[in-house]
Design a protein that fits this description.
Structural class: alpha/beta
Number of helices: 16
CATH class of one domain: Alpha Beta
Strand content: 5-15%
CATH architecture of one domain: Alpha-Beta Complex
Order of helices and strands: HHEEHEHEHEEHEHHEHHHHEHHHEEH
CATH superfamily of one domain: Amidase signature (AS) domain
Radius of gyration: 21 Å
């Protein structure tokens, strides 16, 4: 087993020192800015004894700043741990801090963070992806094994996994508790795992998944032993044309994807098929309408009254003036844009025209995926249409151009199905990813197929 992986740590703990890990974490972060806060948590007993874990800054950690990448929550220190953090600590894993992210999850490159912009370990002039960018960059940068907890609304685990060349698993909606998450969009948010290998991601998911009485959207379905991985054969593998053949896909990404399909032919039959409702023309508008509407509702409570950024109310004539001043100063441009658009979408007279229609389209997208999984064991596409762009290039994109980058990931997120992104090569020295999609609660089979591809790639 390759050194520096979760599996190797479990089997050879005596070879690892978390003091050395902490030193490397601080050293690598000093040039790449992937961490928001670094802390050395208490050592714990359990199955994952002392395996380091880090957490996206939108997930609450007791006593440690949880800012969700925003000045609005810059000094917010929760008095409790999110359920996923509790479960990792109970498993014996050791907490080492929070990772940088786009403000409230609004972004594709982690360039919308109110603090430092994290840099890609493969080329520090390039982005790390978003919004769980710091979570992906940390895994890529560190030589030590680490379980990194991310969160996805429209592709925010798959994206940084691809850009940083690591494995990212986004589970079925309801598979993992959202208790303690600073929500972006309640019906879309999913907490998942990034790690160096499929085993590491599977083991992390195995620990954090399962029913939670604090989150009534969690499923009571039992959690399989995801980390008990086995290679699969005789697969029927579907490639949705509308997701895999989009305009603007970079040549290197396309070549690596075609090479991946050739490898998969060793373990199954690969077939392209048409799925019109999975095209970007359908999924992107539906996703952004629903996500922005829910985001504007969730952010209404960020008013400078109960926690986070505040001013002296006595300096203002009334609370409306106070709220406006606080929100104007503490929110970034992208947050303001999504609040305005989301509020417009939810207005009387526009709700039926936009929000209700998008919800109906979402139902059709779910049906399209269900129909596909009646025919195929797994669907595959590129994870992202490009390699990580340079930071300056990413910052120069219009909002519409930035949103279009999510064309391969928003459909699966709308449907709430599980996704795994696995490294599948490099283009111009930068990693690319293969996205594997499975049916609802099909994580066990999906991870086995991802493991199979990982083994094929390593041969």
């Amino acid at each position: 087993m390759e050194e520096g992986t979760v599996k190797d740590f479990i089997e050879n703990r005596e070879n690892y020192s978390n003091e050395d890990f902490l030193e490397e974490l601080k050293d690598k972060n000093s040039g790449l800015n992937f961490m928001r806060e670094i802390e050395e948590g208490e050592e714990n007993q359990g199955e994952l004894q002392n395996i380091p874990f880090i957490v996206k800054d939108a997930i609450c950690t007791e006593g440690t700043v949880t800012s969700a990448g925003s000045r609005m929550l810059e000094d917010y220190r929760p008095v409790f741990d999110a359920t996923v953090v509790e479960r990792l600590k109970e498993s014996g894993a050791q907490f080492f801090g929070k990772t940088n992210m786009d403000e409230f999850g609004f972004g594709t490159f982690s360039t919308n963070c109110a603090f430092e912009t994290p840099k890609n370990p493969h080329d520090n002039s390039r982005v790390v992806g978003g919004s769980s960018g710091g979570a992906g960059a940390a895994v890529a940068a560190l030589n030590y094994p680490v379980i990194s907890i991310g969160e996805s609304t429209g592709g925010s685990i798959t994206n940084p996994a691809a850009y940083n060349g690591v494995v990212g698993v986004t589970p079925t909606y309801g598979r993992v508790s959202r208790n303690g998450l600073v929500d972006y969009a309640n019906s879309l948010d999913k907490i998942g795992v990034l790690a160096k290998t499929v085993f590491g991601a599977a083991k992390g998911l195995e620990i954090i998944a399962g029913e939670d009485e604090k989150d009534q959207t969690t499923s009571e379905k039992p959690v399989p032993d995801y980390s008990n991985l086995n290679e699969r054969k005789n697969l029927k593998i579907g490639v949705p044309r509308e997701m895999a053949e989009i305009d603007g896909i970079q040549e290197g990404v396309k070549e690596n994807f075609e090479d991946s399909l050739e490898m998969l032919e060793d373990v199954g039959e690969v077939e392209y098929f048409d799925a019109p409702l999975l095209s970007a023309d359908v999924t992107l508008p539906a996703y952004y309408i629903l996500a922005m509407a829910e985001a504007s509702t969730n952010l209404a409570k960020m008013s400078g009254m109960r926690y986070g950024f505040e001013k002296d109310p006595e300096e203002f004539e009334d609370f409306n003036e106070y709220f406006s001043e606080v929100r104007s100063e503490a929110f970034g441009d992208e947050v303001k844009r999504r609040i305005l658009l989301g509020t417009y979408i939810r207005k009387a007279g526009y709700r039926d025209q936009y929000y209700i229609k998008a919800a109906k389209v979402r139902t059709k997208i779910i049906e399209e995926f269900k129909h596909a999984f009646e025919e195929y064991d797994v669907l595959v596409t590129p994870s992202m249409p490009n390699i990580a762009p340079e930071i300056e290039e990413a910052e120069s994109l219009t909002p519409a151009e930035m949103y279009a980058m999510d064309s391969m990931t928003v459909g699966p997120n709308l449907a709430g199905i599980p996704q795994v992104s696995v490294p599948n090569g490099k283009s111009n020295g930068m990693p690319t990813g293969l996205q594997l999609l499975g049916p609802h609660f099909g994580e066990e089979k999906l991870l086995n197929i991802a493991y199979t591809f990982e083994r094929l790639k390593s041969e």
